[in-house]
């Protein structure tokens, strides 16, 4: 229960919440911290931010203060390779990444967590590539004081999920690159894919260890896929994935015995991207769009492939929402 008293009568009282100041668009932040003992000289400062009165709370046994709730909820939400800010500010704790990797949000459990009532946790998008120190989520309760039962229920949901926010780190990987096409094999044109793909891979700790150029021969391509899948963490192919009857790369991938074979996806640019897995090794054919556009379907799936995830056909279908990449500004997951 809250008791309202004049600030002039508040000297010696302990603040039970942070008090913030907003100065136009120049400043927004905390000027008094929870636990601060009000002094005589604080009275004009409080009045300057519109505080003619303060509230002294008597927290009941079945209630919990926002700061205490923030610690309980943050600890429950955090999964592998995350940490939270040391100090609560304005009732909020921020969760950060402790590694370079892919942020994984259990969206279903997050929705369940946020449906409880008082607990609130916004996050970044699932499958976003993050660096060490990047913000992942922020957690607080809506009010200054909340029912303990709600906080405990939300914390239980997060704990039983093993944490709702985690990061899967990138580890050094090696890739084999198979460039296909009679025109490249016979030297009529120079391969441009390697110079486009190598920086993308290197940025995610993956190096192209070996490159071969093959003609449009289905058997040769098939055999090289099998060989590279045994030698490297990732097999990348270029060329031969269009609707032209002479294009055989996608056929060779299928013939190589990949599992979870997926030809095409509802993402543009990069509709013709083809992928599958030989045992645990992803095999992906990159369409020509990667030569002309900064961001294609390959960029969407690459981080996931490099942390060892297997993409399902159902997930590929769902990626149509937001899949028109040319129309999306900024970084996307």
Automatic annotation (TrEMBL):
<comment type="function">
    <text>Catalyzes the insertion of molybdate into adenylated molybdopterin with the concomitant release of AMP.</text>
</comment>
<keyword id="KW-0460">Magnesium</keyword>
<feature type="domain" description="MoaB/Mog">
    <location>
        <begin position="176"/>
        <end position="307"/>
    </location>
</feature>
<dbReference type="InterPro" id="IPR036425">
    <property type="entry name" value="MoaB/Mog-like_dom_sf"/>
</dbReference>
<dbReference type="InterPro" id="IPR038987">
    <property type="entry name" value="MoeA-like"/>
</dbReference>
<dbReference type="GO" id="GO:0061599">
    <property type="term" value="F:molybdopterin molybdotransferase activity"/>
</dbReference>
<comment type="similarity">
    <text>Belongs to the MoeA family.</text>
</comment>
<dbReference type="GO" id="GO:0005829">
    <property type="term" value="C:cytosol"/>
</dbReference>
<dbReference type="InterPro" id="IPR001453">
    <property type="entry name" value="MoaB/Mog_dom"/>
</dbReference>
<dbReference type="Pfam" id="PF00994">
    <property type="entry name" value="MoCF_biosynth"/>
</dbReference>
<dbReference type="GO" id="GO:0046872">
    <property type="term" value="F:metal ion binding"/>
</dbReference>
<keyword id="KW-0808">Transferase</keyword>
<keyword id="KW-0479">Metal-binding</keyword>
<protein>
    <recommendedName>
        <fullName>Molybdopterin molybdenumtransferase</fullName>
        <ecNumber>2.10.1.1</ecNumber>
    </recommendedName>
</protein>
<comment type="pathway">
    <text>Cofactor biosynthesis; molybdopterin biosynthesis.</text>
</comment>
<dbReference type="GO" id="GO:0006777">
    <property type="term" value="P:Mo-molybdopterin cofactor biosynthetic process"/>
</dbReference>
<keyword id="KW-0501">Molybdenum cofactor biosynthesis</keyword>
<keyword id="KW-0500">Molybdenum</keyword>
């Amino acid at each position: 229960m809250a008791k309202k008293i004049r600030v002039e009568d508040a000297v010696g009282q302990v603040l039970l919440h942070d008090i913030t100041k907003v100065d136009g668009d120049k400043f927004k932040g905390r000027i008094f911290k929870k636990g601060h003992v009000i002094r005589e000289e604080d009275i004009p400062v409080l009045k300057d931010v519109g505080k003619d009165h303060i509230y002294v709370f008597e927290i009941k046994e079945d209630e919990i203060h926002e700061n205490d709730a923030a610690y309980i909820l943050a600890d429950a939400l955090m999964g592998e390779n995350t940490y939270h800010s040391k100090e609560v500010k304005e009732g909020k704790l921020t969760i950060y990444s402790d590694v370079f990797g892919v942020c994984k949000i259990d969206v279903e459990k997050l929705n369940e967590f946020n449906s409880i009532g008082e607990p609130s946790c916004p996050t970044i998008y699932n499958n976003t590539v993050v660096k060490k120190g990047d913000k992942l989520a922020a957690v607080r309760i809506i009010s200054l004081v909340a029912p303990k039962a709600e906080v405990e229920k939300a914390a239980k949901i997060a704990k039983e999920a093993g944490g709702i926010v985690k990061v899967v780190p990138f580890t050094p990987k090696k890739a084999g690159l198979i460039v296909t096409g009679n025109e490249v094999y016979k030297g009529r044109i120079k391969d441009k894919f390697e110079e486009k793909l190598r920086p993308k891979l290197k940025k995610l700790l993956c190096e192209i260890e070996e490159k071969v150029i093959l003609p449009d021969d289905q058997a040769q391509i098939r055999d090289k896929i099998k060989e590279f899948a045994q030698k490297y963490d990732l097999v990348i192919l270029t060329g031969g994935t269009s609707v032209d009857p002479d294009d055989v790369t996608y056929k060779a991938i299928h013939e190589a015995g990949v599992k979870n074979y997926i030809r095409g996806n509802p993402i543009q640019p990069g509709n013709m991207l083809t992928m599958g897995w030989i045992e645990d090794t992803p095999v992906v054919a990159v369409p020509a769009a990667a030569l002309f556009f900064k961001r294609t379907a390959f960029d969407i799936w690459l981080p996931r492939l490099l942390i060892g995830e297997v993409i399902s056909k159902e997930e590929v279908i769902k990626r149509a929402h937001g899949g028109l990449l040319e129309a999306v500004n900024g970084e996307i997951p």
